[in-house]
Design goal:
heterodimer; A: 259 residues; six-stranded mixed β-sheet; four-stranded antiparallel β-sheet; 10 strands; globular; B: 497 residues; mainly alpha
């Protein structure tokens, strides 16, 4: 533990942040009939507690696959994923369920709310799975809906809400069990500009206020303004990783997409 | 960086608690309510499959019950007809042999044969055993294919086979051919059959004696019943006729006499009514009243019109008006005859429907067993398909639940519970539906006979079995697809969709 703590966090200053996600030579290939597609081709990366990391890359670059790997949603073909220095591949199905419900919060492009539950129930279900009692879960659920600004609409079902509202419920749900990591897969891709901005603001607020690590796969360049670090993936490999201020300097000179 | 083994976890990963059954049930019911249309379709598929099964099952237990009930009743209704046949038609050696060989020694017909045989009781007992053997061998030979029989015993048929085998050369041929057919087995050993064949002339002789005496007795009784048809004569069996019949050598129990005479009376009336009904004049009367073609008036149709007293009144009156002779019955007589006719019709239907009862599962008959197995197959395929479909289209939901930390087992239980609830609901509805259909069909075919012989215990058992089957089958059908979905990594499940 001490060796981890002693690693100096190069991203955020002070307060002893450490590596929370680490991948070692991560590879993933899909086989559809006889065609083999390599989605990830050896990714080594370290992600630190409390940082806001954006993963960028064109579609098909492997960023969603990378996202799924570090979320324990899919298993790698080879290589390892450590979350808090625990090898995800060595977890049993039950431990994996524990990890998914308490250590990681997921936010999807499609929101993926359970259609037959109200906003509040969507938030409380994950707490139920984690073993919280119904009263406690309801109390915390209302609190979280308040944080995302939907306290008055707790009884609405997903179908009765706009995309932005659904995504806010999804964020509340992801935060329900106080995870260490918030994994977002294109959280703003299905939303218009203003609602997308609102979502980003909420994510940023959560990152700064509760110190949750946010890992965000995105196309959205507004992410540049709020993230600490950027990572570009191309053809299953990390093209580059850079801190925000470094990128800002570049953007000034080359003006955008570093194709 | 220098710690790729990751031996120092900073979060301790405990086991995820599993949810209580109440919460899982709640989730299942919400799932059903959310997908009401989809669930309704699944429910309909299950109901229809179960209704089909219950219909088959209930029909067959009803038919079985009616059949058992009707055999005795039919025996009673046809008593007079049987006696007419027995008293008036001469018999043959084969008929006599089969009659003696297929009843127990104390049976009325066998005692009668003993009387006609004119041999001692002990000798007749031996003869009766030979007759039983003969019946077995006759059944064996008639069960062979024509080609096989032709090769073994030539053109001989029935008891003539035993005559044919008296010939030494014929016996050798038979033995040779039988030896060639490894799959064909005699009832008993070949030696036993040879013994039987060697005894055959004696058996034949005794049988001939019985047949001759019986035919003589038939002649005597015919003389007694010269004036009028035998059936009309039997109405008055209680008097001299019964003495004459007994003197001729027939065995007639005292207890039978009133029944015979009552049945004979109804039968006679029925025959007379039918004769009048089918005269040109009455056909025209029917045609005029019911506005149909006179040619289409047949007896079964006519009887169906004579159910009610006022219709019978009209019938008798019309016969008098049109000058048809013979319409001399009271209304009650005709109504009784008509109800007997109807009962006979439904009884013989039941008799036919239940002919193969005793075979197959539960003694429901081969045909019924086959139909039930087919409907069971329809059930299994229908329910499995419905369940596979409804689980497959919810992969995204399953994946989401897994992201939220649901255990594989919880997901499995949620979906199996859901399927079981639908299966139970479908099973109950299907059972009610199937029972209604079965009752409707059986009621139309057998009328009041169905109500009186309703096998409630069997019906209840069948209904319960079908409900349980519905729930069980759908629960089981959903295990495989939901297990498959629950075991997938969440993203793989989403990718499939």
């Amino acid at each position: 533990m001490s060796s981890i703590d002693s690693v100096e966090n190069p991203i955020k200053d002070g307060n002893g942040s450490r590596v929370i996600v680490r991948t070692v030579d991560l590879r993933k290939s899909y086989r559809v009939k006889s065609v083999e597609t390599i989605a990830l081709n050896g990714v080594d990366v370290e992600i630190f507690t409390g940082e806001f990391l954006s993963i960028m890359g064109p579609s098909g670059s492997g960023k969603s696959t990378f996202f799924n790997m570090i979320g324990g949603l899919d298993s790698p073909t080879s290589g390892r994923v450590f979350i808090d220095e625990v090898d995800v591949a060595q977890l049993t199905a039950v431990e994996l369920a524990f990890l998914r419900s308490r250590k990681i919060g997921y936010i999807f492009q499609q929101f993926n709310l359970i259609q037959y539950m109200t906003a509040l129930e969507n938030v409380t279900t994950t707490m139920t799975f984690a073993g919280k009692g119904p009263d406690e879960a309801r109390h915390r659920g209302m609190e979280l809906l308040g944080v995302v600004g939907l306290a008055e609409r707790w009884f609405h079902r997903p179908i009765e809400m706009s995309g932005g509202q659904q995504q806010r419920v999804a964020i509340a749900r992801a935060m329900a069990n106080e995870p260490s990591i918030l994994l977002c897969d294109e959280p703003t891709a299905n939303l218009d500009l203003t609602t997308g901005k609102e979502i980003l603001e909420i994510l940023q607020r959560l990152n700064t206020e509760s110190g949750v690590t946010v890992i965000c796969a995105t196309h959205d360049y507004r992410m540049l303004d709020i993230c600490d670090r950027l990572m570009w993936i191309r053809d299953g490999k990390i093209e580059r990783i850079a801190k925000r201020d470094e990128v800002h300097v570049e953007l000034g000179s080359i003006g955008g997409e570093s194709s | 960086m220098e710690n790729p083994g990751g031996k120092t976890p900073t979060i301790d990963i405990k086991e995820q608690p599993s949810l209580g059954i109440g919460r899982l049930l709640d989730l299942s019911i919400r799932g059903i309510r959310h997908r009401l249309f989809r669930s309704f379709m699944t429910f309909v598929v299950i109901s229809v499959a179960i209704a089909f099964l219950v219909n088959m099952l209930a029909s067959s237990v009803i038919i079985r019950a009616i059949h058992l009930e009707s055999a005795a009743r039919l025996d009673e209704l046809k008593r007079a007809d049987r006696w007419v046949a027995r008293l008036t038609s001469p018999t043959t050696v084969e008929q006599q042999l089969v009659e003696t060989g297929s009843h127990p020694l104390e049976h009325q017909l066998v005692r009668e044969a003993a009387g006609f045989s004119g041999i001692s009781r002990a000798a007749f007992t031996i003869y009766a055993n030979h007759a039983r053997e003969a019946v077995e061998y006759l059944r064996f030979f008639s069960g062979l294919s024509y080609g096989d029989r032709r090769l073994m015993v030539g053109r001989a048929e029935g008891v003539a086979i035993f005559d044919h085998l008296q010939n030494r050369a014929a016996w050798d041929t038979f033995q040779h051919r039988l030896g060639q057919r490894k799959s064909t087995h005699l009832v008993h050993s070949l030696d036993a059959f040879q013994d039987f064949v060697s005894r055959w002339p004696q058996t034949l002789h005794t049988t001939r004696g019985i047949v001759d005496n019986r035919n003589r007795a038939v002649g005597q009784v015919k003389q007694l019943m010269e004036n009028g048809s035998p059936m009309e004569q039997l109405k008055a069996i209680a008097g001299e006729l019964s003495t004459g019949i007994r003197q001729a050598g027939f065995v007639l129990e005292d207890s039978e006499v009133p029944g015979i005479s009552r049945r004979a009376a109804i039968s006679t009336t029925a025959n007379q009514v039918e004769r009048v009904m089918l005269t040109v004049e009455m056909r025209q009367a029917f045609a005029a009243r019911f506005d149909i073609d006179p040619k289409t008036v047949v007896s079964a149709w006519g009887w169906s019109k004579l159910r009610r007293p006022h219709a019978v009144g009209w019938f008798i009156e019309e016969a008098h008006k049109r000058g048809v002779p013979g319409a001399v019955w009271s209304i009650d007589e005709v109504v009784a005859a008509a109800s007997t006719k109807r009962e006979l019709a439904s009884l013989s239907r039941a008799e036919k429907a239940g002919r193969d009862i005793g075979d197959g599962i539960l003694g429901l008959g081969k045909r019924m067993t086959l139909l039930i197995l087919v409907s069971l197959l329809v059930c299994v395929v229908g329910i499995t398909n419905a369940m596979v479909m409804s689980v497959t289209e919810r992969y995204r939901e399953i994946a989401t639940l897994k992201c939220l930390g649901a255990l594989d087992g919880s997901i499995l239980i949620i979906f199996v519970l859901e399927a079981t609830i639908l299966g139970l609901a479908g099973g109950i509805t299907g059972t009610v539906l199937g029972l209604c259909i079965a009752w409707g069909r059986m009621g139309a075919a057998y009328g009041s006979l169905m109500v009186t012989s309703m096998p409630w215990a069997d019906i209840l058992a069948a209904a319960l079995a079908a409900m349980v089957l519905g729930a069980l089958l759908s629960g089981m059908a959903s295990i495989y697809p939901s297990m498959k979905a629950a075991r997938l990594a969440p993203m793989e499940a989403m990718r499939i969709e």
